[in-house]
Amino acid sequence: MIWSLQAAPDLTDKQFAQWSKLLEDRAGICLSDQQRVFLQTQVTMRMRELGQTDYSQYYNRVVDGVSGMIEWAVLIDRLVVKETSFFRHRPSIDFVRGYLQNQINNKTLKGSFDIWSVGCSSGEEPYTLSMVLNDCFSLAQLDPYYGVIATDISRAALGIARSGVYPQRKVEMLEPHVRQRYFKQLENGRYQIDPELKQRVCFNHANVLNINEMPGIDQNVIFCQNLLIYFRRWLRHEIMNAFVDHLKPGGVLVVGLGEVVDWSHPDMVRAPVDDVQAYIRKAAV
Ligand SMILES: C[S@@+](CC[C@H](N)C(=O)[O-])C[C@H]1O[C@@H](n2cnc3c(N)ncnc32)[C@H](O)[C@@H]1O
């Protein structure tokens, strides 16, 4: 019987440790022992596609030079959780809306308003932020002057994000006026994001572990939700520290509620909001 029809052999403890270490070293993602079946399923599915039968041989293939990097790009997409939705955490989105609205009202907005969505998955989060910023500028009858940078480690997720086309189930929970304003229904029933909104969002492949190597402009808002939870506590803190260096004075860092505990930074103060975990960078003195 060929291997593809047989049950996959179980990962040994040693093999599980080896694969987990690779995932953590390269992507920061720390698997618990309960996720062994998940890891095994994803790895064996990929091995089947390649006609490979031996975990160790496949491991060597993944870590071998340039071709290994290409294989890694395929595998990592299978190992990350990409769940997301439009307006996923409303209080955090409303916090960003209020933050920009205040700057518009107080006339303290200087230059363009820049947001970075870190771990943007298939694009729902950065497009949501783009809708909110667009709303704020049009309410104030100002020309929209903003940009959204959206990064993720999964090339497949970025492909969906760049297409800006979503199935009906992804948009049906949106308020009808939002759907009408920012989406067009295609003949095949899918929904396409408004082109003007789309051109405001720049998608890039990036691993947040390499944050210190990321060039680019400082941000008014860094929005990072449902990503740091997969990392060890010390790594969450390191990345939070690095985020601070990418913020403009007065800029805000918004993370998922409860995703980072016991973190503080001399340049940051916690925003006094109950259901949002946000930190404001102190203005330069
Ligand atoms: C659960 S999704 C969250 C999506 C969105 N932020 C939200 O809250 O709805 C987590 C995303 O983080 C990405 N990710 C995981 N590890 C990463 C890393 N080391 N660097 C960049 N992105 C990563 C995954 O590919 C995935 O798209």
UniProtKB/TrEMBL annotation:
Pfam families (alphabetical): CheR, CheR_N
Keyword Kinase belongs to the record: no
EC main group: transferase
Catalytic activity: L-glutamyl-[protein] + S-adenosyl-L-methionine = [protein]-L-glutamate 5-O-methyl ester + S-adenosyl-L-homocysteine
CheR-type methyltransferase domain mapped to chain residues: 4-261
Top-level taxon: Bacteria
Keyword flag Zinc: no
GO BP term, pick one: methylation
Keywords noted in UniProt: Methyltransferase, S-adenosyl-L-methionine, Transferase
EC number(s) per entry: 2.1.1.80
Gene Ontology molecular-function annotations: protein-glutamate O-methyltransferase activity
PANTHER family the UniProt entry points to: CHEMOTAXIS PROTEIN METHYLTRANSFERASE
Name listed for the protein in its UniProt record: protein-glutamate O-methyltransferase
Organism: Teredinibacter turnerae (strain ATCC 39867 / T7901)
Gene name tied to this protein: cheR_1
